[in-house]
C-alpha cells in the first residue's frame, strides 16, 4: 500500500486480498473522529462558502498528491468523506477501489461496467474505460460532492434512482 503525506488521508496499517470461496480485499486504516459528509447532507447541515472552499482546497490537494503517485481513488463520495466539525477538517477514506495507473488493474477486467457509485463516478469509470481513467475521474467526483454541498442534492440523481437514467444524466454533461 502507498503512504500519502496528506494529513487528510488516514494511515493505512494493513491490507490484503483474501481467497476463500470468493476473493475480497480488506483494509485496516487509522480511526478518524467525525461523521460522514453524507450524515451532514442528510441532516440539512448548512455548508457556508468558507467550509466549501476548505473542502475543495483539501480534496484538490489530495487529488494532486494521488496524481503524483499515479493513483486514482475512484470512489470519492459523501459516504467516504469524514468531516469533523470541531476541527473543521475533512478526510478521504476507503481506498478499496483505488487503482495505480501503471498497473493493469486491481478489479476484474472482463466487466462491461466497473465497480463504482452511480451519480459520483465519471462516465469513463462506470464504462470501465481504464485507459481514460486518471485524475480527471476523481476531479469529476469532487465536483459532484461540492455541488451537493452547495445545493443539498446530487445533480445526477436528484429526480431518479434509476441507474440507466443516472447514466444518461452523466453522459449529457459537456
UniProtKB/TrEMBL annotation:
Transmembrane segments: none annotated. Gene3D superfamilies: Transferase(Phosphotransferase) domain 1. GO terms for biological process: regulation of autophagy. GO terms for molecular function: ATP binding; protein serine/threonine kinase activity. One of its GO terms (cellular component) is cytoplasm. It holds the Pfam family Pkinase. Residues 1-174 form the Protein kinase domain. This is Protein kinase domain-containing protein.
Amino acid at each position: 500500500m502507498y503512504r500519502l503525506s496528506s494529513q487528510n488521508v488516514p494511515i493505512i496499517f494493513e491490507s490484503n486480498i483474501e481467497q476463500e470461496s470468493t476473493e475480497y480485499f480488506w483494509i485496516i486504516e487509522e480511526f478518524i473522529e467525525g461523521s460522514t459528509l453524507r450524515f451532514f447532507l442528510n441532516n440539512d447541515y448548512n455548508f457556508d462558502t468558507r467550509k466549501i472552499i476548505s473542502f475543495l482546497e483539501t480534496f484538490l490537494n489530495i487529488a494532486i498528491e494521488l496524481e503524483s503517485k499515479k493513483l486514482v481513488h475512484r470512489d470519492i463520495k459523501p459516504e467516504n468523506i469524514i468531516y469533523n466539525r470541531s476541527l473543521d477538517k475533512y478526510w478521504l477514506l476507503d481506498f478499496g477501489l483505488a487503482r495505480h495507473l501503471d498497473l493493469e488493474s486491481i478489479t476484474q477486467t472482463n466487466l462491461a461496467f466497473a465497480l463504482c457509485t452511480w451519480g459520483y463516478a465519471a462516465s469513463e469509470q462506470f464504462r470501465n474505460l481504464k485507459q481514460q481513467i486518471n485524475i480527471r475521474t476523481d476531479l469529476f467526483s469532487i465536483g459532484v460532492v461540492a455541488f451537493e454541498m452547495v445545493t443539498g442534492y446530487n445533480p445526477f440523481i436528484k429526480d431518479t434512482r434509476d441507474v440507466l437514467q443516472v447514466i444518461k444524466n452523466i453522459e449529457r454533461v459537456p
